[in-house]
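User: What would this chain look like folded?
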Amino acid sequence: MSTIAQQEERKPLNPPQRLLVIVGIVVAILLTVFLALTQHVVQPLLALIGIGLGFTLFHARFGFTSAFRRLASVGNGQSLRAHMLMLAVACLLFAPILAIGTTFFGTDANGYVSPVGVSLLVGAFIFGIGMQLGGGCASGTLYAVGGGRSVMFITLLFFIIGSTIGAAHFTFWMDEMPSAEPFSLATSTGLGYGGALLVSLLIFATIAWITIRIEKKKNPPKMAAVPSAVGWKRIFRGSWPLFTAAIVLAVLNALTLLTRGTPWGVTSAFTLWGSKAADAMGFNVESWGYWQGSTEALHASIFADTTTVLNFGVILGAFLASAAGGLFTLSTITAKNAAASVIGGLLMGYGARLAFGCNVGAYFGGIASFSAHGYIWGVMAIGGTFLALKLRPLFGLSVPKPQDRFC
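Assistant: Here's the prediction, encoded as structure tokens.
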């Protein structure tokens, strides 16, 4: 074990921020009760699932951005192997749900299967750049906001703005750019969900094996241990193993599918929030191609939107996790990292609309739904990561060390 890892393990845990924990619990109860009284029964359930997602993401420091960055910069594939486990468990759970095709409430269960075309390639690539400059992916932005990382509020604001601009340009990218039909390993090949599951598991095992081969060649430093409690207290305080978080995230994504009929997503809510704001400022939002046939959401309460409720839950869950660990604190913002957050947020928001989602909806949800576009999204986002590693120093952002476990 390295000296750094030993030092990290000896570092004591911070005392819990009890007042903040109480505030978080009260807000969670009020939100759940409010949704139960004013919305469909699905909404309070999704709020609880979102809290679980945020709690898990923060406790494990489970990163999508950092996994790509760490592999590209030093050849450390530990986090990417956690991704493969998460995707494997998700596919195991999604396959029977999608094959049966119904939810807990009798509605249709549908995965995220989207076209493969220029919009996907461009969108995923610029999203990959954006998440390395903005300091986090879509889920990472939410849980960093919940944990009090001040600069991520800037990232979130411009993520929303970028998503809204992408919605305004949606027709051009969908109608004017070349695109192939959506391709599902399950329904487009004749393999069925059983065959698609076997193929997916083989792909994940192959990717994990490749990361091990890369590590043997480059011999990168291992990720440092993060202080944690012992026994059952570890559920609430300290770090979780990445593999544990991977399994929990897969289970919660499957519960999301069973509850609302689609997998976990993040960025459609950003587009909704920004479009509502644009509509209030006088823009003809209903004419945008993105909203054609679905303008009801523009005039309904944001609490009726399932993705919005999930996002609020993620922020709240991360807040509870950070306060329980004594880690909630507002960090300093500099001019350079603010500029990086502005650019990163805009690129992620715009890229997510072009690419049919982000690291959650397109990568996690798409691959778990057996869609080819999820794999292509991952490849293109890693490509954007390589370019972003050259850009980070311009904003005072270092090429990270393997010990950096934040998203």
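The radius of gyration is 20 Å. If you want, I can go into more detail on any region.
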